[in-house]
Amino acid sequence: MVKTDIRVIYGDTDQMGVVYYGNYLRYFEAGRTEYLRAVGIRYRDVETQFQVFLPVVEAHVSYHKPARFDDLLSVETVLDRVGRASARFAYRLVREGMALASGHTLHACVDRAGSVTPLPAELAARLRTNSPE
């Protein structure tokens, strides 16, 4: 698991002072990016070295408690599954030990033309072996 700390900025909140629901997916993205960095893969390298993209094809968020302006949040990210042409990440958004939200994103592996393609063998191997579990 990789933990990524995020401080809620005022612009992330709605009129009620609660983090706007769509921003939780941005927090998940930050966690996923840092997860990849922690296992030695920058997302930039996925695009340049491996010549593929990993777009989100499914996203799920369960909201448990609200996050608010100036909260210090921790995104806990794990690589849940590596498939032939996909990867799935799971997340928990935590404030002071309390889970505020949880969810996952499923990513297809596509080539530059946008066609689904198998994960490059080296990328899949690095994802599987370097998992900081």
How is this fold's topology laid out?
Blueprint: E1 2-7, H1 23-38, H2 43-48, E2 56-63, E3 72-82, E4 86-95, E5 98-108, H3 121-129
Antiparallel strand pairs: 1-3, 2-5, 3-4, 4-5
Can you walk through the features of this model?
The structure is a single chain. With 133 residues, this protein is of the alpha+beta class. It has a single domain (2-129), classed as Hotdog Thioesterase (Thiol Ester Dehydrase, Chain A). It is 23% helix and 35% strand. It contains three helices and five strands. It has a five-stranded antiparallel sheet. Strand 3 and strand 4 (86-95) form a beta hairpin. The chain is elongated. The N and C termini lie close together (5 Å). 23% of the residues are buried.
Query: What is the CATH topology?
Result: Thiol Ester Dehydrase, Chain A
Please estimate the helix content: 10-25%
* Percentage beta strand: 25-35%
Structural class: alpha+beta
Number of domains: 1
Quickly describe the structure.
With 133 residues, this protein is an alpha+beta fold.
Identify the notable features of this structure and list them briefly.
Thiol Ester Dehydrase, Chain A, 3 helices, 5-stranded antiparallel beta sheet, alpha+beta
